[in-house]
Write a structure and sequence with these properties.
Elements: H1 2-26, E1 30-43, E2 53-65, E3 70-87, E4 90-108, E5 115-137, E6 140-145, H2 146-153, E7 164-178, E8 181-192, E9 203-216
Antiparallel strand pairs: 1-2, 1-9, 2-3, 3-4, 4-5, 5-6, 5-7, 7-8, 8-9
Length: 221
């Protein structure tokens, strides 16, 4: 009788772990490609540049299940950010280019159909790969490197760019099951946590709309 009770208790203790393992095995590792549009601006203590600049992002990701409905989702992206301004027939923008690595925790909301909502949040680490000022007016357009322009108008040390950026992002969307693969559409908002300049308080703010195609990775047995 005592051995029967002990056996039943052990079975009840092990069963949730076995179910969790089976669910993880039913949710394979997935690879994906993503692309979309960025609506970016700068914000800071002085108000920054008032207009939004439209850019893009593109890259790849991996979805690694870590629980029944949770997954770890690292990404590597190429993204353009910055800001724009216009005055008296002249338009100009500052284009910032980054290689960005978001590190996301993703929640897939369980549903019975083939359309599943999801949400995610996490930090994003970025390395600046380029910066240029683009302007047009009076039928003339030009583009010049940021450091070169700042060197012409003043001491370059007064406008020293940081080579890296750190932000936090939140987002979500809908995932559509397409023959065992997932096509997702969603949006995210990223807030820069450090200034893009060494001696100023201007930070990146980016609203992104993006689509992703994910396919499962099945190990050969």
């Amino acid at each position: 009788m005592r051995l029967s009770v002990i056996s039943s208790a052990l079975l009840l203790a092990v069963l949730p772990f076995a179910e969790g393992r089976a669910q993880l095995e039913a949710r394979p590792l997935r690879f994906g490609v993503t692309a979309g549009m960025n609506i970016a601006k700068l914000s800071g203590a002085d108000g920054g540049i008032v207009d939004n600049r439209t850019g893009f992002l593109a890259g790849g990701l991996v979805v690694i299940p870590v629980g029944r409905n949770f997954a770890f989702q690292p990404e590597i992206l190429f993204a353009t950010k910055g800001a724009a301004a216009s005055d008296s027939g002249f338009t100009g923008s500052m284009k910032l280019q980054y290689v960005e690595v978001p590190v996301i925790l993703r929640l897939d909301v369980p549903t019975s159909g083939k359309i599943k909502p999801f949400a995610y949040a996490g930090p994003a680490f970025a390395l600046k790969t380029g910066c240029a000022f683009e302007g047009s007016g009076g039928g003339v357009s030009a583009s010049v490197d940021c450091d070169q322009l700042f060197g012409q108008i003043g001491d370059p040390g007064d406008f020293s760019f940081r080579s890296a950026d750190v932000g936090g992002l939140v987002g979500g969307g809908l995932a559509f099951d397409v023959g065992g693969r997932l096509f997702t559409v969603g949006a995210r908002y990223e807030v820069g946590l450090v200034s893009i300049f060494q001696n100023d308080d201007a930070k990146n703010r980016v609203l992104s709309f993006l689509g992703t195609f994910e396919w499962p990775f099945h190990r050969k047995k």
